[in-house]
Write a structure and sequence with these properties.
Elements: H1 2-23, H2 28-35, H3 39-46, H4 54-64, H5 69-72, E1 91-93, E2 101-105, E3 115-123, E4 137-145, E5 147-151, E6 154-158, E7 163-167, E8 172-175, E9 181-189
Helix pairs in contact: 2-3, 2-4
């Protein structure tokens, strides 16, 4: 059952990205150039053949000039307040990507926000290490587990209740040993303040 829900979420995401690109009157090549990845990758994302990591989605949202939440949901919530109970959230599995992690988008919708909170879960047995970068700033708050988190040329051992805050244009990402699992809150800002 879980894989079906994940497949449905991937297909909804793919449809929404294609819809947004067409609404903006942009070609695959224009968006992929602006996002900094290949036209082939964007095509796979738009057909649901690839489940992109959050950093790729952040670059894609930036290229489409929309908040990252708009990639997941086309409904317009109240701009002054948003409430999303746990049962209304969907887990998004990165199993089709090279990273093998899952994340939960905590706040969805079209409203322009200065930040986007996400819960990420990774298991060292299946996770494939790769550093990423994207526009904006990022806050990490460790909920469960332990991992190393790399930002630029620094390595931080992160345990429950530890925090990181950094410019997300630096190469960054979690690094886990096979026996480690981690669950952490990430808050992305829309634009870097520098």
């Amino acid at each position: 059952m879980e894989s079906r829900v994940g497949d449905v979420t991937v297909q909804r995401l793919a449809t929404r990205i294609r819809e947004l690109r067409r609404q903006h009157g942009l070609t695959l090549q224009q968006v992929s150039d602006a996002a900094g990845f290949s036209k082939g990758l964007l095509s796979k994302i738009e057909t649901g053949g690839v489940s992109p990591p959050i950093a790729t989605l952040a670059k894609l949202a930036d290229a489409l000039d929309v908040p990252i939440g708009e990639l997941f949901d086309g409904q317009t919530p109240d701009a002054t307040v948003s409430f999303f109970p746990r049962e209304a959230r969907e887990d998004y599995h990165g199993r089709l990507s090279s990273h093998n992690y899952k994340y939960e988008l905590l706040v969805r919708g079209r409203a322009r926000r200065d930040m986007q909170p996400v819960i990420i879960s990774v298991d060292g047995k299946t996770y494939r290490f790769k550093l990423m970068d994207h526009p904006g700033e990022q806050f990490v708050y460790m909920l469960d587990g332990e991992m190393d988190y790399i930002v630029g040329d620094k390595v931080f051992t992160v345990r429950p209740e530890d925090c990181l805050y950094f410019d997300a244009r630096q190469m960054h990402g979690p690094k886990l040993k096979r026996n480690q699992r981690a669950r952490y809150l990430v808050v992305f800002s829309g634009q870097s303040r520098r």
